[in-house]
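Let us walk through a complete example step by step. Step one is to write down the protein sequence. Step two is to encode the small molecule, magnesium ion, as a SMILES string so that its atoms and bonds are unambiguous. Step three, shown after the inputs, is the structure prediction itself.
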Amino acid sequence: MALKVDYVAREVGSNLRRNVTLTLASVITVFVSLALVGVAFLTRTGVQNATQRWQGGVEFIVFMQPAASEDQISAVQEALDESPQVDSVDFIDQQEAYEEFTDLFADSPEMIQSVTPEILPPSFRVEPTDKDVDVIRALGSEFESKPGVKQVVFAAEAIRTLQDFSRLLSLGLFSGALVLLGAAVLLILNAIRMAMFARRREIEVMKLVGATNWFIRVPFMVEGLVQGLVGALLAIPAVIGIINFIESKLTDTETINLFQGFAVHSSEQFGVAILLLVVGCLVGVIGSFVAVTRFLDV
Amino acid sequence: MIKLENVTKIYKNDVVALREANADIQKGEFVFLVGPSGSGKSTFIRLLNHEEQPDRGRIFVAGKDIGKLSHWKVPYLRRNIGCVFQDFKLLPNKTVAQNVAFALEVIGRPKHVVRTQVPAILELVGLAHKAKNMPNELSGGEQQRVSIARAFVNRPLILLADEPTGNLDPSTSVGIMRLLDRINRTGTTVVMCTHDAGIVDTMRRRVIELDHGTIVRDQDRGVYG
Ligand SMILES: Nc1ncnc2c1ncn2[C@@H]1O[C@H](COP(=O)(O)OP(=O)(O)OP(=O)(O)O)[C@@H](O)[C@H]1O
Ligand SMILES: [Mg+2]
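Step three: the predicted structure of the complex.
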């Protein structure tokens, strides 16, 4: 049977207008819960990106001053090569550091423009033979005082901080989001129930003259869908705004050592946007589906 | 057109609203359902419309056993049955024409059908000039005409009327009965509950009398009591 688009649109529009406060409550709840989901996801992704250079057993990184001389660099290189506790060393010169940087910040040309190879620190990524934390710490500290060395950053510390932060944050955000998503489903369910109550006369007549169940239900389900969708559409720019804000806070050149990699690619943002749209629509459809099946019977 | 075979309806509170009822109503008949309040007249009508299901017995409408009807087919049954009530059940926020059009739109009739059928049926019930009025601007008799127009606009095989004149004065009731008679003459089977002895006695149609859920009389060209 033909379910006309203009009929559904008209019904949904007038229902939404009639129930502004309830609709608003549902939309805001969907919006907030999805924003939490999105931020949680993207912080996780950002942290994962940030810890990428710590892969392959690298336990600490010796950052040289950007202005360190050739002699200073080769002195450190030699010391590392000669140390029996060092398994392998990977030297990242300024040009390579710059390439990594441009790779990570491919999405933000203004970040790339603010940086030249000359201001980035060259660094040694060190994989020690002994994985014991104290041994690594003692080994790394030896290099801290060497001329030309800016800082030694330990993986254990850096990664643990970051990962704890990210785990806790996303866990907190996810559980908050889950509760709110449940609330959103209930709010939408209630909004749809109220809409059906407001239209009980129409519904009675529709049943009487032989409108099909789906004909009666679809406008209400679309109404729920719209509420979820609008919540998601509000959440997406909010999430991207928050993430960009976090990025800009964490990636200024001062804290570059630790957080250099905290960046979320636009493809990852796009993926999360799709996820939020899907979850928003699901919340709307589930809430309204329960409402129409529980409270709308022939 | 309508056939009841040993139909018993017991509500949840153990009220036996219809007991072993048998009736056979032919196409094009006009039947009055009479009986005291609570005798089961409205129940009879609701059973035909599949608003209620019998506890025992079988009901045939247009040759189909409606007890065997699957859930999703009920709306299609109802498209063959127009319903008219004592309280009209008009939508207060729609005009007369929109109220009638609504019945066609919600069963997916195309726009051009709605455009031609609505004025035609309003003409038939004598309300063409009130098409743009709201229901609360009409008299009770006029509102009932609108509800009859809505019930009949899809040209159903059967028209069920539950005390259609219950809220109307005698002279207005006569007008409504003329209309129902006219609809009946188009071949539509009409089943009507009423407490109005005057109407039953002047029309002299088939009368089925109920008492405490039992059919106590089924008489052609009958009178009220
Ligand atoms: N939904 C229901 N639930 C329980 N009992 C009901 C229900 N509908 C009707 N009854 C009972 O069934 C009996 C028959 O009711 P019904 O409405 O069919 O009578 P009626 O003949 O139409 O009466 P009236 O002339 O007053 O309209 C009554 O005793 C009534 O109380
Ligand atoms: Mg009754």
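Step four is interpretation. Residues B 41-42, 162, 193 surround magnesium ion (ligand 2) (CB under 6 Å).
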